[in-house]
Prior knowledge:
The protein is of the alpha/beta class. It is built from 7 helices and 12 strands. The longest helix is centred in the first third of the chain and has 10 residues, at about 10-20. The protein is globular. Pathway: Cofactor biosynthesis; pyridoxal 5'-phosphate biosynthesis.
Amino acid sequence: MNVGVLSFQGGVIEHLNQIKRLGHIGVEVKREKDLGIIDAIILPGGESTTIGRLLRVTKLIEPLKEKIRKGLPTWGTCAGMILLANEIEDEESKYLELMNIKVRRNAFGTQKDSFRTHRIVNEISEEKLELVFIRAPYISEIKGNAKILCKLDDKIVAAKQDNIMATSFHPELTDDLRFLNYFLKGNWMKNK
């Protein structure tokens, strides 16, 4: 399977390394032609404003939106979640606007407030997963057919909708491949 990673900025290498560890081919997505050879895509963490600006500058935003609308399995981690959201709290700017969620940017604090915790995410494993939060957003509101995958206290930190999944945290910064494996198997899309 060819798994794309949007490769403008952020946690690109970490995702590519995990894709390779699962025996798949990682593809750096930087141009429209790269979209033609992938079976799934990951929108990594990083600076959502920068990534969003580069999506517009490279004219990749519309072709990417169209490919995702047509069913391309898509996973946004941290900044990727912000890119996918229909709404960003206290901001008018939006990016892909494909997921029925409202997000709060940097909701867990600054870089120095980054942390790790462990939670069971029932759809993925009966055992606890390590969750790494770095200046992470969270979902403050979920609408329509979007469904909650994981909460941390009362905050939604993972959700899915049709062929799209989003997490506030960074599974690529752990050695655990269960979240990536769950995404790539695609069974979660059958449970829309």
